[in-house]
Amino acid sequence: MSLPSENEPAKEKRNALEELENRLYSRTPPPLRHDEEFLGEEKHIRIAPGLTAEAERKDSALYSIFATVMPWLQRLLIASILFFLFAAGLGLFGFWRGGNTVSPQNITIQIQGPVGAAAGEETAIEVTVGNDNTLPLDAVDLLVEYPSDTRRAGDLASSLPRYRDSLGPLASGERVARRLSFVPFGEEGEKKTIGVTVEYRPKDSSGTFSKNASYEFAINSAPVTLRVMMPKEVNSDQIFEIALEVNSNSSAVQRNLLVKGQYPFGFQFGESTPSPSFAKDTWELGDLKPQSKRVIQIKGKVEATEESERTFRFSIGTQSAKDEKRIGTIFLSEAPTVAVRRPFISLDVLVNGEQGKTFVARSGQTVRADIAWANNLPTKIADMEITAELSGSIYNRSAVSAANGYYDSNTNTVRWDQERVARFGAVEPGEDGTQSMSVALLPIATNPALYDNPQLTIAVTARGKRLDEQGLYQNVSMSVVKEVKIATTLALSARLFHEGGFFTSSGPVPPKAEQETEYTVVWSLSNSSNGVTYAKVSALLPSYVTWLDRVNPPVGGGVVWDVGEVEAGVGVGTPPREVSFQISIRPSLSQVGAALALVGDTSASGEDRFTGTTVVSNARSALTTGTLSDVGASPQSGVVTK
Q: From the CB of residue 216, how many other CB atoms can be counted at a distance below 10 Å?
C-alpha cells in the first residue's frame, strides 16, 4: 500500500499515524510490501511463526471460554482462603479469651512459702487455686506430691508422700486457698521440690483436665549437728582416736538416728565406745532429745607403705524402715582427711612365721613371736627399747622365754633395752633387726570353765629418742597389737556293741558264715572351748554291711550325723553329744577266719565361731567285729566262724 499523495481527496486520505497504529495492533500479518515503496527495491517484513500461532490460539473458542472462567475461579480461591483465616482467627480468639470455653491458661495456681526450711521442723506452704474462665467448674481436686522422706506434722513416725483434697465446684472468678503443713527431711543445702496438680472438670463436661505447678525450697539447717574430731596427721600403723559428737539442733525429738562410717583403704578398726551396732561402722543412737548429745569414740590405725592422704566419711540420719543397717534420710555428712606419714620406727610381729593381725593356734602348743623393727629416720635413734605385754589366761606364765630379753612375771612383759641389746644405745639410720620370744599355751582340758573363747594378746611398743632440727631430743614410739586366738578341740569316740548299747542286737558272736549278726555303733562328740556350728560326723560302710536304723539312712554307702550346733564345754564336765545306730552283717564263707570291718575311719568337723576356722576332730580308726566294747569281749569275738 502506498502513502496517499497530497492531491487525493481529503476523505480518502488517512493520517499516517493512525494507519501505523492500526498496523501495529492488527492481528492479521501485513502483506508483503515492495521495497520500492520505501527505497525503490522490493523488501519483505516477516513475523515470527510463534507469534502467529499464539494469536491463532487466542482466537479459538476454547481459549475464549477459559479466559472468561479462570478469573472467577481465582477470585473464588482467594475468597475461600480469606474466609478460612478469618474463621480460624475467630476460633483462636474465642479459645484464648475465654468465650464459652474453659482455658487452662485461666486456671491459676499460686504457691507461697519459705525459700528455706529446717530439716525436722514443721513448715507450711499456702496453695491458692483460681478460676478466671467465664464458665464455672463443676469439680476441682488438689493433688500435692511431697519429696521423699517428708513426714506428717505432729506425727514424725508417719510418712507424707502425697496429699489430696477435693475443693468442690469453683465459680467463675472464684479462688480457694489451702494451708499445707509438713516436716521436711534431708541433707543441709539439698534442694527439694513439691509438685502441685489441679484436676478440674468444666461445667456440662464429662472430661477431666489438669494443670501442674511446682514449688522449690532448700534445706537450710539439719536437725542435728555432726562434729568429727581426729588428728590432722598420723604415722602409719599408729593407733589414733576419732571422736564423733552429735548434738541436737531441733526443738523436736529426733527419732531412730543412725551414724554410719566409711573407712579409707588401709584403715583397721580397733574398738569403739559404744560398740558398733552393725559390723564395725554403724551405730544406732536411738532418739535424741532437744539440747542433748551423743559421743562415739573410735580407735584404729591406718597402714600405708608410703606417705599419703586418707579420707574418712561419716553420715548421720534416720534409720531406714526397710533396712535397719542403712540410713533412710541423710541429715549431714562429714569427710575429714588425715595425712599418713611413714612411721619413725617400723614394727611388726610374726607369729609362728606368719604375718597378720590375728592368728589361730591350738591349745597346748608353743607360740613363737618374732618382733621385726627398723629405723626409718635419717638420724640415729638413741636409748631404744622394745616391750611386749602379754595378756590372757590361756598362756603358761612359767613358760615364757625371750632371747636377749627379760621377762617380768609381775607385769607380764618382756623387755629388750640397751643393757641386753648393745646396739639399742644408738640405732643407725636404716638399721633393722628382730627380737624373738616364745610362749607356751595351756591345755584347755585342764580347766575348760576358764577358757571361753580363749586368746593371747601381744602388745608390742618400740620407743626411743631422735635428734630434731633444733638439736633437741624428741621421743618417738610405735605400737602394734597381735591377737592369737585358740581354736577349740573336737573330740570324737566310736564304740561297737552287741550285748550293750541302746538297741538290742541278735545273732551269734563270734559271727558265723551265712548267718546274720547285728551290732550297735555309738558315736560321742565333745567340744572344749568355743562354740562350733555346722558340726557333722561321717564314715563309710563296707558293701557287705546292712543299715538297720531308718532315722538317718546312709547316702552312697556312707553314714553322716548332722550334729549342728555344739556349745563350748560339751563333753568336758558335761555329757557329750551321742548318737547310736544299728547295722548287721551276713558273712560269706570266704570271710571265715577274719575280723570284718563294720564302719570305716570316722572323723568330725565344724566351724569354730570364735576363730572363724574349720576344726577337725581326731580320726577314729575303723570299727571291726574284733573291737567290741562289750564286757568280756576279746579280739577272738570278732573272727568269723563256720
A: 11
